[in-house]
Amino acid sequence: MVAGIRSLSRPINHAMNSERSRLSGSAIELVNALLAGLGSSFEPLVSLFMPTLLGLCGRTNKVFTSRAKACILAVIENTQLPSILPYLADSLTQKSAFLRLVAAEGVLACLNCFNPPDIEKDTRARLIEDVIKLTARDASADVRRAGKMIFEAYKALLPDRVERLVPKDSTHDIHC
């Protein structure tokens, strides 16, 4: 199944990127159905579809952005794959404020639904720490607000690592 989907990924991505909202919407619905059915077996397809979905969030058309955001959150919830985190973190440096907000909300969703041992790995924890630092300095108030919620979730999941991120005497000052 995954091999067949992989072979169709180029036309599916092309359809998702289409300016025709019906075609794009149908392609996004297909990806939603695939990830719901495959669950964690969707992992080999993450690298094929996440960049396109995140790219759609950078558009100005609300129909495209809301569909893509819903699909990204469904990918996170249905697959619970930590391999999604780097795609979200990379999106936090993009020009689009909405894309940065979707990426921050995606990281928060990851923290809320992934198994803590998956997040506790040093490289992933460092990635989340970098996300917290990026969101704290973001130009968008909504992204900073999401960053504060990421920090709160991070504190609850990884209390031993908080001191590495923020000195003990200034923990309460972050995002104030």
From TrEMBL:
GO terms for biological process: cell division; mitotic spindle assembly. SUPFAM superfamilies: ARM repeat (SSF48371). Residues 2-166 form the CLASP N-terminal domain. One of its GO terms (molecular function) is microtubule binding. Its main location: cytoplasm. It is found in: Cytoplasm, Cytoskeleton, Spindle. Keywords: Cell cycle, Cell division, Microtubule, Mitosis. InterPro entries: ARM-like, ARM-type_fold, CLASP_N_dom. GO terms for cellular component: cytoplasmic microtubule; microtubule organizing center; mitotic spindle midzone; spindle microtubule. PANTHER family: CLASP, CLASP N-TERMINAL DOMAIN-CONTAINING PROTEIN. Belongs to the CLASP family. This is CLASP N-terminal domain-containing protein.
